[in-house]
Amino acid sequence: MARVVFTEADIARRVAELGEEIGGHYRDGELLVLGILKSSFIFVADLVRKIPRPHEIDFLIAASYGDASTSSGKVELLYDGETALEGKHVLLVEDIVDSGNTLNRIGRLLRKRNPKTVEACTLLHKHVAAELELVPRFVGFDAPPEFLVGYGLDYAEDFRHLPYIASIED
Ligand code: IMP
Ligand code: MG
């Protein structure tokens, strides 16, 4: 069965620290927090309340996994946010970086829209990506190379609602 990897309290503590780090990093300019749906929705909701400076919030929908627990290597953009990126600091928010395909592909796409900067924040980083073009500047936790669920992360659309993060491998 599932093994808890990060408790609800671990996550709350780290998300509050990340919000402070992000607030300290972006001293001036307009900030847009761009969440990658669906899996980042809980993280984004908690994180933005801990970023102590004004910012806009929008989302993209990217899909790369289907119902399998291994990466298909393809990333599809199913929904594109409507907020203009030009001249803004764009902070992409991911739940977990695994192969890095999602961040690479979305980072490339967003840079064409003339933002002032593009950085990424991920709650979890597996550190297994072969080539990361967009290295996340803000990382919540280094994650084990296992399949994790909860706090927005799913396995075939299940387990997103868990308030903690668990491994479904033995
Ligand atoms: P990528 O392989 O870095 O492109 O990861 C793409 C997406 O796959 C992430 O945003 C997650 O939504 C999902 N993903 C990767 N690893 C896991 C995992 O361990 N559990 C649940 N979803 C995952
Ligand atoms: Mg997912």
How many structural units, i.e. domains?
A: 1
Count every beta strand, where a strand is a DSSP E run of 2 or more residues: 9
Multimerization state: single chain
Beta content: 25-35%
Mean pLDDT: 92
Bound molecules: inosinic acid, magnesium ion
Our measurement of the CA-to-CA distance between the termini, rounded to an integer number of angstroms, reads 6 Å
Shape: globular
Helix percent reads: 10-25%
Helical/strand content category = alpha/beta
What's the CATH first level?
A: Alpha Beta
Strand arrangement, major sheet: 4-3-2-5-6-7
Q: What is CATH's topology name?
A: Rossmann fold
Helix-strand string: EHEHEEEHEEEE
CATH architecture: 3-Layer(aba) Sandwich
Our Rg estimate from Cα atoms comes to 15 Å
**Uncertain segments of ≥5 residues (pLDDT<50)?**
none
Count the helices. How many?
3
| Main β sheet profile | 6 strands, mixed
